[in-house]
Amino acid sequence: MTESPNLVAFTPERLEKVKEIIARYPEGRQKSALLPVLHVAQEQWGWLSSEVMDYVAGILSIEPVEVYEVATFYTMYHLDPVGKHVIEYCRTGPCCLMGGEDVYGHLKNKLGIDAGETTSDGLFTLKEVECLAACGWGPVFQIREQFYMNLTNDKVDQIIEELSK
Amino acid sequence: MEEVKPQLLKITFDGIEVEVEPGTTIMQAARKIAEADESQGHLVPPAMCYYKPLPVSGGKCRACLVKVSAGSAKDPRPMPKLVPSCITQVQDGMVVENTTNQGVLDTRKSIVEFLLINHPLDCPICDQAGECHLQDFAFEHGSAKTRYEEERRTFDKIDIGPHVQLHMTRCILCYRCVYTADQITDKRVHGVMNRGDASEISTYIEKAIDNDFSGNVIDVCPVGALTDKTFRFKNRVWFTKPEDAHRNCDKCCGKVTLWYRGDEVLRVTARKNTWGEATDFICNTCRFEKKNTSEWVLEGPTKVKRSSVISANKYRADLVKKPDFALKLAATQYKKIDDSRPYVTDEETIRQQSIENNDKANHRSLLAKNN
Amino acid sequence: MARKILTEHINVPGIETFDVYRKQGGYTAVEKAIKTMTPEEVVEEAKKSGVRGRGGAGFPMGMKWGFLAKPEGVPRYLVCNADESEPGTFKDHHLMKCIPHLLIEGMIISSFALGAHKSFIYVRGELMYVIRILEKAIEEAKAQGFLGKNILGSGYDLELVVQPGGGAYICGEETALLESLEGKRGNPRNKPPFPAVKGLYQSPTVVNNVESISNMPWIINNGGDAYAAIGIGRSTGTKLISASGHIQKPGVYEIELGVSVDEFLNSDEYCGGIRKGHYLKALVAGGSSVPILPAHLITKTANGEDRLMSYESLSDGGFATGTMLGSGGFIVFDETACIVRNTWNFSRFYHHESCGQCSPCREGTGWMEKVLHRIEHGHGSMHDIDLLVDISKKIEGNTICPLGDAAAWPVASAIRHFRDEFVWHITHPHEATQPGAVYMGEMALV
């Protein structure tokens, strides 16, 4: 399980990256960097605690509430601690047509958890998401940046075993 | 140099012509008609999210949708969809249908239904009752029954700051309190979290809203979601008597309305215009800490709309536009209401009567409790 | 083989790199536009081509460019909408992943035409790996002098920024996208003012879909008239169709607009027909938002004419017997698909994705989902069907942005064409809730 960060600061490399992101926008429009910077923060801490969001607000010179408003609006930001691998499973129509619901049932059984939960070993968090724009290759789930497509029960077993190592 | 007068634009609203300055919205044009002739008040579209003192408000609740049957003199084509009158600017020669268009009225009825889906019908225990815009809106445009059978969303009540309570269950997400904080305070700490019907007004982490003007969110809230803790459950608004007053305040204009029960000031609010909008925002000191008459210079009774329960101690049937359902229901199910008894118009008598009535009511409930 | 404009070189090994793309004739259109044409001439070619917005609305791109306000001293922006999230649509994902330089070339030409010096590509955050591909391609193009200061010595400067989203379908709506790009919640704005007058940072802005912009290199190389010669009527050019569901070969196909639905569905060049042993039940032709069509209205219009893959033919008959081309999300249902379940699924999607700003959509989408959930799970009653139709009518047209319409149409059309199936779910709650249960009824006769 990812610990709540006690020392809130970007690593020097990430801080460099954040500065580069902020510089992309016109003068005074640094708030535009909020979404990308939150992605960078989530990359570092795994999830967004209020301390992290306050820190980001400080970097962008905006009010903390503006960060909370945004982070709670978009579904990609985790507002609670998550497992090592967050499985974002597509539950939308086209994937379901391809057998997505059966595979999802299998995945839930395999992990022994329901949507929104984390396995007791802290390895997997299961999250239901809407269409991932890969309908022709469904069923689909995503772990971080990686797409896993054309899923079958066997394939799911394989992936979970691979990631459990 | 001679001052150039702006070319006035002509708009026909529900058959009534009025000339307005460029940049005026349809809503403001309708209000102008009503301000010139009080009997036309019912023509004005209802506003749940729009609040004139907050320039960015409006367009969200869709309660004020109207039909534009001719866009302008230059381009008289009708607009394909209903438009929000609060943010749509008048064009010269525009023709607008509001109460004369059945489609508009049907849509308005459905907006009431949508807003009430997740709004509790707890008016009997809500402090806002009697001055609640949603209550008025539902009374004038809604249905007697709901078709919604599913669970409603609920939230716990929370205190945001020492004087304000947030009861999110009642919120209709008009965003007014957010815009108020943006506009009159330099540091906003509450906002809209989450999205869709899970949206809520919140500070996210427990934080007090603590600045000199935070109390104004109570005045702008159209429903009972943000209430004054110093007034909670003290009295029904229609038993209190509003009185305009002012004091020298170093933070705000100091122009307020005092709400009396007998000789006691129960609450202090900003002064509001005919449309329920604060004319000047006031500071927390004036609102929460100055509750003695001796601290104020009284100006006289506040002018309250005659249709308001506050002025008559009850809804006067002859002054309120009756919704169809009530008439139909009354015709079929109830015997004719005797509406012939004389109305008292003398303010002092009304005040005394209301106090007496209320005391009788309290007495009755005390009796019931003791028995 | 039909003519390919976007995907001609998509299978060339290494096409995602600058060198291979260049060898295939890439970036010649940038050279032509910047060195030999004025911005007005580029806009003129776009107008001549008749290319229509490929994100779903189908508004002519050249005309949209023509609306851009050009006040002195105010920067103008071009924003590419790559927030592809419409269920059933995955063409932009495919295009950007396989041939990123095509979009970048299109962005350079379009930005030049509009006089923008900073342009954004707003990609949905889930496609972070595609964002990295695009950023790499931008670096390459910059190193070769096609981006940055003084492009090809012309004095024209352009900076391209790839912006990730955060996971919100609504940001595909252009004003919600702009709000998101400004670092705010993706609440669509009230219009007017339109982005062409007040868009990003309150400056004049054009928002175009990935596929629309990717057509620009070909249009510049071959001329707008040549583009307009492809296709049928006002549906000019080619279109990427994302085919999914119960077909032999799901995937992204480039078609010439005007090819028949029958050919697209059944020929081996495209979908390859319904999967073996099954037959066609229904089709969603343009992404989950457009009305669903029953089998007998798919290959023929109500008048018995061949249904074509074009904006006009697909919408023939209005919503009574037609649908829309939309974003080209072609979802095919065979007889094993349960329309009620699918409608509930789509409805849940819109409920989940509503921004919550305006009341009809915020409250109505959730209400529809709950009623559909009830019907699907065997607790519905007959008046629920009419209730759904009524709610959908009350949402449609009364919201700030088209998400309300998008939520209403699938429900209304499913009931219009498959009412029997809803009735069966209500009258046979025990059978209907069995796993895999599907109403066969009249379908068996087709």
What would you say about this model in short?
Chain A has 165 residues and is of the alpha+beta class. Chain A is built from 7 helices and 4 strands. In chain C, helix 15 runs antiparallel to helix 16 (359-376), helix 16 (359-376) packs antiparallel against helix 17 (382-395) and helix 16 (359-376) packs parallel to helix 18 (403-427).
Oligomer: heterotrimer
Order of H and E elements of chain B: EEHEEEHHEEHEEHEEEEHEHHH
Q: Strands of the biggest beta sheet of chain A: in what spatial order? A: 2-1-3-4
**Percentage of helical residues of chain B?**
25-40%
The strands making up the biggest β-sheet of chain B line up spatially as 2-1-5-3-4
Instruction: Estimate the global geometry of chain B from the Cα principal axes.
Output: globular
Helix fraction bin of chain A: 40-55%
Secondary structure tally: strands of chain B: 14
Main sheet characteristics of chain A? 4 strands, mixed
Distance N terminus to C terminus of chain A? 16 Å
Strand content of the residues of chain B, in percent? 15-25%
Sheet/helix structural class of chain B: alpha+beta
| Parts with pLDDT < 50 across at least 5 consecutive residues of chain A | none
Radius of gyration of chain B: 22 Å
Report the β-strand fraction of chain A as a percent range: 5-15%
Describe this structure in words.
The complex is a heterotrimer of chains A (165), B (371) and C (446). With 165 residues, chain A is α+β, with helices and mostly antiparallel strands. In chain A, 44% of the residues lie in helices and 11% in strands. Chain A has seven helices and four strands, in the order ααααβααβββα. In chain A, a hairpin with a 2-residue loop joins strand 3 (141-143) and strand 4 (146-148). The two termini of chain A are 16 Å apart. The model of chain A has no long low-confidence stretch (mean pLDDT 93). Chain B is an alpha+beta fold. In chain B, the strands form four sheets. Chain B has a five-stranded mixed sheet with strand order 2-1-5-3-4, with helices on both faces. A four-stranded antiparallel sheet of chain B has the order 13-12-11-14. In chain B, strand 1 (9-13) and strand 2 (16-20) form a beta hairpin. The termini of chain B are far apart. With 446 residues, chain C is α/β, with parallel strands linked by helices. In chain C, 42% of the residues lie in helices and 12% in strands. Chain C is built from 19 helices and eleven strands. Chain C has helices at 18-23, 28-36, 39-49, 61-66, 91-98, 100-114, 128-143, 174-181, 210-214, 216-222, 224-229, 261-266, 311-314, 318-321, 339-353, 359-376, 382-395, 403-427, 429-432; strands at 77-82, 118-123, 159-164, 205-209, 231-232, 235-236, 238-245, 251-256, 280-284, 292-294, 329-334. In chain C, a hairpin with a 5-residue loop joins strand 7 (238-245) and strand 8 (251-256). In chain C, helix 15 (339-353) packs antiparallel against helix 18, helix 16 (359-376) packs antiparallel against helix 17 (382-395) and helix 17 packs antiparallel against helix 18 (403-427). The mean pLDDT of chain C is 94. The chains are: A alpha+beta (165), B alpha+beta (371), C alpha/beta (446). Chains A and C meet through helix 2, helix 4 and helix 5 of A and helix 7, strand 3, strand 7, strand 11 and helix 15 of C.
